[in-house]
Design goal:
The chain is mainly α and about 110 residues long. The chain is built from four helices and no strands. The longest helix has 25 residues. The model has no long low-confidence stretch (mean pLDDT about 85).
Length: about 110
Amino acid sequence: MAEVFSVDPMVLATILGMGLVTYFTRVAGLVIVRFFTIQGRARAALEAVPAAVLMAVIAPTILATGPAESLAALITLLVAFRLPLWAVVVVGVISVVALRSVFGLF
């Protein structure tokens, strides 16, 4: 049982190293942006990054799962045009739970 909780030092060093590299790339981006004035198309592109990353995370779930998740994503998308973010999240969670129960996936 004790072997389950043992940590290989190389694995731990790898995880810590990846965390540090991730942290420094995020901080470096914030520091570098302070020295430049970003306007026009570059500004529009940078403002689109959060939505693009969100879609990159969500799209595989929408396309690779069942009909309940796909339909819930469509409902959430339609609601997102009218409601604030917190309400969109609530509607998305409720719709996926309800649709899973309808399709018998729960």
